Amino acid sequence: MNNSSSSLFAETGGNGTRAYRCSECSSVVTYSDRLTAVSGSKTHTFTNPAGMRCDVQTFSSCPGAIAIGQPTGEYTWFPGYEWSLAVCRHCGSHLGWYYEAASEQTGPKDFWGILTYHLIPDS
Questions:
Q1: What is the pLDDT, as a whole number, of residue 105?
Q2: Which range marks the domain in which residue 46 is found?
Q3: Is 6 among the domain residues?
Q4: Beta bridge partners of 110
Q5: Which of 3, 67, 82, 109 would disulfide-bridge 71, Cβ 3.0–4.6 Å?
Q6: Is the pTM for the entire model greater than 0.90?
């Protein structure tokens, strides 16, 4: 990871947007101006196969996160999308998932589904 990038992320919010930080290391993950509606909402609640409730916000971009692993459509919460794990670019903590459209007809092309309890909003 490049330490010079953390100052860049802190400055890319713009125009009064709220930064969302990693709950583990406090690095900036994304900004409120990047919240995006998917399936008609910017917030979603799901239950994973283990029975755990997952509250997710969807973002168009998360410069402080990276996607890891091969995308899969298994157990996807968003039909038409495949997911990979999303982790903090700075500390590697699990943040949620990165979703990619399985076909060119599906939109948006991609988005991030980030667990709300892994984000700390700036005041």
A1: 80
A2: 17-121
A3: no
A4: 100
A5: 82
A6: no
